[in-house]
Amino acid sequence: MVMFVDSGATTGSGGLTIGSSGNLNMNAKGASINPTTNFAFRRFIMAGLGDRGALTDFLSAQVGGSGGAAVTANANGNAGSAGVTNQCGGGGSGAHQSTGSSGRGGNATAYSGGPGGGGAGANTGTAGSDSGGAGGNGAATSAAAGGGAGNPGGTGDGLANGSDGTGGLLIIIVRGDVSVALGGIISANGTAGGAGTAGSIVRLGGGGSGGGRIIILYTGSYTNLGTVQANGGAGGAPTGAGTNRTGGSGGAGVITLQQISG
């Protein structure tokens, strides 16, 4: 999503204010698409503020953070990689018990955090999509295994589907000031993997989906007393008597804050 706010002045005369109960977000809104290049949007800046000469291309990287590796030992899932320069975060892998392997987390794209992989017990879970699509499915024999978060969330054994959604791409361009009040939120978070909870003494969580990408450009000042975040979703965390293993969490996406010429 791209938002352009024009206060009519470069600074000191309005802009974007996120109030104490305000919430501007791309949580769980990542797009299921396989981009062929980086997403660059210099054209949006020029359209809104006029051609100011040589401007930086602000990017969301075509290839984002890597998904967490599949697990073949009796262990919790692996976290997805946090995004580095211009990246969304990778998806977490599912937890594992006994034979087989859990599903790996999906890699992030320019438009989406990576989906989570499915948990597995004496079976093999499926991987999260590498194009912002479905979370991996859980698979288990004599156990309950959660699905990974994704678009949609993967199915789980034991009524433990992964949550729908991945962190999305949020671009905010403001002619003026940006202010986030205490309690205000700007976010692009991933969602949680499924927790294998039903009718078993072995429960294995699916991986969480990765955080998205936030870019905030402003000509005036930037003040943040609230929350600006692109966190990955939690891995599925089963509870109850017996063996419980948690899916890997999604990696965080990158946030860019930049004052630009107005």
Percent in helix: under 10%
Give the rounded overall mean pLDDT. Answer: 90
Quaternary state of the chains: single chain
Helix and strand element order: EEEEHEEEEEEEEEEEEEE
Largest sheet: 4 strands, parallel
Structural class: mainly beta
Widest sheet: strand ordering:
1-10-14-18
Radius of gyration: 20 Å
* Count of DSSP-assigned helices: 1
Described by the principal axes of the CA atoms, the overall outline is elongated
Number of strands: 18
pLDDT < 50 runs, ≥5 residues? 43-48, 50-54
How far is it from the N-terminal to the C-terminal residue, by CA? 22 Å
Beta content comes to 25-35%
Summed up, the domain count is: 1
Structure notes:
By secondary structure, the chain is mostly beta strands. The protein has one domain (28-221, 228-262). It contains one helix and 18 strands. The longest helix has 8 residues, at 42-49. The model is unreliable at 43-48 and 50-54 (pLDDT under 50). It has one helix at residues 42-49, and strands spanning 2-6, 15-18, 23-25, 39-40, 59-60, 96-101, 120-124, 139-140, 144-145, 169-175, 177-180, 185-187, 202-204, 213-218, 222-224, 227-229, 243-245, 255-259.
What is the fold's blueprint, element by element?
Layout: E1 2-6, E2 15-18, E3 23-25, E4 39-40, H1 42-49, E5 59-60, E6 96-101, E7 120-124, E8 139-140, E9 144-145, E10 169-175, E11 177-180, E12 185-187, E13 202-204, E14 213-218, E15 222-224, E16 227-229, E17 243-245, E18 255-259
Parallel strand pairs: 1-10, 2-11, 3-12, 6-7, 7-8, 9-13, 10-14, 11-15, 12-16, 13-17, 14-18
Antiparallel strand pairs: 4-5
